[in-house]
Amino acid sequence: MQTYLLSQQFNARSLAENSTACPANATICNGTSCVLQEDNFNETLSIVLSTVLTIMLALVMFSMGCNVEPKKFWGHIKRPWGILVGFLCQFGIMPLTAFLLSLVFNVLPVQAVVVLIMGCCPGGTASNIIAYWVDGDMDLSISMTTCSTLLAMGMMPLCLFIYTKVWTDSNAIVLPYDSIGISLVALVIPVSFGIYVNHRWPSKAKIILKVGSIVGAILIVLIAVVGGILYQGSWIISPKLWIIGNHISSSWLSLGFFLARIAGLSWHRCRTVSLETGMQNTQLCSTIVQLSFTPEQLELMFTFPLIYSIFQLLFALLILGGLRVYRRHRVKTKTDVEKTEQKEDTKSTSSHAK
């Protein structure tokens, strides 16, 4: 009994000394190390929101399919210049860029591996939504996303095997082939329905597309906000990862655009390839990271996919804003030139009449 009382006194004194370190709901407190009660709120919120977001995403991809024409889509498959440029960027340049940046910034091995995983991921559905808003080629966008997701089943293991040898055994990284397959099915089925609706009822497809594009824009912002809420405890990570997140997002968007232009693609297809190259499937990256690393390792880099998604969204908005400003200026300049020509024609006509 005396030992128990001494233990209780010690624990009370320890709690008093470390009151700033341990929360009130801590079940065990030893120095600065605390064990908190299990909180199921985030887990429940994650399940509910992931279900809602999955349904919303399927509806958005259905609406994006309403802008796809079967002949043009099949044309990109038969003459896959845009798809080949995207493939070269997706599984050639991007993993190499991620590898070099990890070496240059000398990040921790687990941090380097998550950067590489992001560099090897296929394109995400956010690129399809942004491609619509920047007047890209939707047929090319969806064909590139579909092909990159399908090819990722073979190319991701190959790229990770080549580049992760410096830091870890590639066999330690668990690739969720079921998640990749689900992503592919969640893309192909709603888009196929959208293509069918566009073929049968073109006028209704346009209305669905307009609604879906707005919902898609809201969905992208909502996913970023939800990610920030669910993983708010993991935001304190190395500043180097913030810098790398910024660099790889901007460099991938730029490289995709310039390579597409060198390949002779039109401007709207260059924008499409740029977005498909620079906007990755961050949800897939997060899944791979969760399956492959311990909780202690996750603390060092788990938020990197979310950081990257924030930067890719910011750069995509800059592209959209820049395009809108350019088009307004161009239209205004064109209108001014036409007015000047009309005035000159009027003056010329009146002088001849005299």
How does this model look, in words?
The chain is globular. The chain contains 14 helices and 2 strands; from the N terminus they run H-E-E-H-H-H-H-H-H-H-H-H-H-H-H-H. It has a two-stranded antiparallel sheet. The chain has 354 residues and is an all-alpha fold. The protein has helices spanning 2-17, 41-65, 70-78, 81-104, 109-120, 125-133, 138-163, 177-200, 202-230, 239-262, 267-278, 282-292, 295-301, 304-353; strands at residues 26-30, 33-36. 79% of the residues lie in helices and 3% in strands. The longest helix has 50 residues, at 304-353.
Question: What is the secondary structure topology, with strand pairs?
Answer:
Blueprint: H1 2-17, E1 26-30, E2 33-36, H2 41-65, H3 70-78, H4 81-104, H5 109-120, H6 125-133, H7 138-163, H8 177-200, H9 202-230, H10 239-262, H11 267-278, H12 282-292, H13 295-301, H14 304-353
Antiparallel strand pairs: 1-2
Query: Which percent band covers the strand fraction?
Result: under 5%
Span of the ends, CA to CA: 121 Å
- What shape does the CA trace take? globular
Order of helices and strands: HEEHHHHHHHHHHHHH
